[in-house]
Amino acid sequence: MTAIVEIRGLRKTYDDGFEALKGIDLSIEQGEILALLGPNGAGKTTLISSICGITVPTGGTVSVGGHDVVRDYRGARAMIGLVPQEITLEPFEKVIRTVRFSRGLFGKAPDEAHVEKVLRTLSLWDKRNARVIELSGGMKRRVLIAKALSHEPRVLFLDEPTAGVDVELRKDMWATVADLKAAGVTIILTTHYIEEAEAIADRIGVINDGQLLLVEEKAALMQRLGRKDLRIELQHPIDAVPEMLSHYGLVLEDGGMALTYTYDTQGERTGITQLLSDLSGAGLVLRDIQTRQSSLEEIFVGLVKEGTA
Q1: CATH number of 3-223, picked from 3.90.1150.180, 3.40.50.300, 3.40.630.190, 3.40.30.10
Q2: Neighbour count for residue 300 (Cβ, 10 Å)
């Protein structure tokens, strides 16, 4: 794959001395969905603002499609669509005119076919003549995306795109993002919703305290850092873990009716076969066995804790 966004040694220090970005290096591939995860104040929005030309970096370089965002900001900005966190729309303007206006701001010639395509992709065509004030919160966010796509950008930034949106609309938005990717748009999103990244991202970036802790393919990250729990339900309750099983680190749960064994998915041996044999040797009768993979949220929390330790 070809990188469409190249970031090298990016730094941002504000006048009061606060260092929001501390030497970020990142390559974003053409046509991928990259999710940036991080707590409040981690530097996510500052990073996006620096790439989009809203904030001027104090060090390092950023290029979009080969255009330096400082030296050739017009060329870089023309390739970028940005959907901000806040809903900033003219409330009394019609949806279709809002999108047409955004296209004109980038010096693009009128193209009713493209405007219609964007509105249909976002399920807004039936609302094209509605005033923005008449729309629901979820529809207003779709209008923001339509505005960002009006000038046919190759890179789309979504800064907390589903903040304040209910679960059903959030899933609709995920489907919309998947459709945009299928159309060849590169998408970078910041999110507080771990399940959002887990559902739609190709790669996950974890940022904290202005530093990029890692960027890795989602599946590989979960496999490398994930752990599995083996939950063993017992036929009869026990008061304590038998002494001969103490080295397994078993956790007794559900009033003595279940044991949980945690193991590394990357280990050469899981120890499960020997554990089951020893459980039988200890006189325990099993009723059921279940496994559970660590979620991305658990992995994320662990990474942030390590990064601040």
Answers
A1: 3.40.50.300
A2: 22
Tell me the β-bridge partners of 26: 7
Reading the chain (309 residues) residue by residue, the pLDDT tens digits are 679 999 999 999 999 999 999 999 999 999 999 999 887 788 888 999 999 999 999 999 999 999 999 999 999 999 999 998 888 899 999 999 999 999 999 999 999 999 999 999 888 999 999 999 999 888 898 899 999 999 999 999 998 877 666 667 677 778 888 888 888 899 999 876 777 777 889 998 988 889 988 898 987 777 766 677 889 999 999 999 999 998 898 999 989 999 999 877 666 677 888 898 999 899 999 989 888 766 666 666 676 666 554
Measured CA to CA, the distance from residue 132 to residue 256 in angstroms comes to 57
Hunting for tokens 């992995």 — which residue is that? 299
Q: How many residues does the chain have?
A: 309
Domain 227-293 bears CATH identifier 3.10.20: no
Strand ordering across the sheet containing 227-234? 251-253, 258-264, 227-234, 286-293
Q: What ranges in 183-295 are assigned the alpha helix state H?
A: 194-200, 218-225, 272-281
- 110 — phi, psi (to 5°)? -55, 140
Domain boundaries, the chain: 3-223, 227-293
DSSP 8-state assignment for residue 131: B
Q: How far is CA 145 from CA 90, 140, 201, 214, 218, in A?
A: 15, 9, 18, 28, 25
* pTM of model > 0.85: no
